[in-house]
Amino acid sequence: MIDLSGVLALLPLAGAGFGVGFLVGLTGVGGGALMTPLLISSFGVPPSVAVGTDLLYASVTKTVGGWRHHVQENVDWPIVLRLAMGSLPASIILLAVIAYVPLDTEAMAAWIRYGLTFALPVSAVAIVLYPIMMKSHTNGNGSEGSPGREAATVLFGAALGLLVTLTSVGAGAIGVVVLALLFPALPAKRIVGSDIAHAVPLTLVAGAGHLGLGHVDFGILVALLVGSIPGILLGTRLAGVAPDWLLRPLLAMTCVMRRMRSSRNRT
């Protein structure tokens, strides 16, 4: 027998997934910055479970987007490799620290909230800057690969790996804006494609680590995917109907408000 009460309890989560997916489809960014705080503040999900579940959710949705960009040849794989050289080891190290350093639930929740306090405002600024940075790259014709820039890419990958593993926030808008600064001659579509392609292994490794730590709720994960996939498809179809200059500041403001609300809730 199907537990109808359990299914009905997941409907609000599917609705939240649809809403976030719709916004991501419209604007192209903001998934992690909205979903994790939403799970914590509106649904009372423990911060560690919200992060772990959102990471696996992101690994699924970003795999679809990453494959599309790969087919369209919009991925600069050397850049993805350098990012991964920093992000994946950093993610694994942080997961090992979480696993082997004794932290109770409240301490873990506090660290995640500290991370969100930093990540969400930064992500909000990145969401606003995103279209500006992309416009400045529309006439680019290639990437640049000086040793200093390559090292900076690896270091940024490491910082992003730590941030995403702790909070699930940052793999989208923050990554795009920093890559645009590091590679000013790279076309906008390749910046976006490379950022999404790098997010796939990062969210998968971080999500798998949190799964091993017991930080994933599969009921929530399925509900989010069921809601977000049609939301993303609808948002993508309607992209351009609503003015971008209005949507992005609203999305950024939502990130900041979610940060303020989630920081007040205690697990």
Uncertain ranges: none
What is the straight-line distance between the termini?
A: 33 Å
Helical percentage: over 70%
Mean pLDDT: 82
GO cellular component, one term: plasma membrane
Subcellular location: Cell membrane; Membrane
Keywords: Cell membrane, Membrane, Transmembrane, Transmembrane helix
Pfam families: TauE (PF01925)
Could you please describe the fold and organization of this structure?
The protein has helices at residues 4-27, 31-43, 47-71, 77-100, 105-135, 147-167, 173-182, 188-212, 218-238, 244-264. The chain is 81% helix and 0% strand. It is mainly alpha-helical. It has one domain (9-264).
Features:
single chain; 267 residues; mainly alpha; Probable membrane transporter protein; transmembrane; TM_pro_TauE-like
List the helices and strands and how they pair.
Layout (H helix, E strand, L loop, with lengths): L3 H24 L3 H13 L3 H25 L5 H24 L4 H31 L11 H21 L5 H10 L5 H25 L5 H21 L5 H21 L3
In short:
By secondary structure, the protein is mainly α. It has helices at residues 4-27, 31-43, 47-71, 77-100, 105-135, 147-167, 173-182, 188-212, 218-238, 244-264.
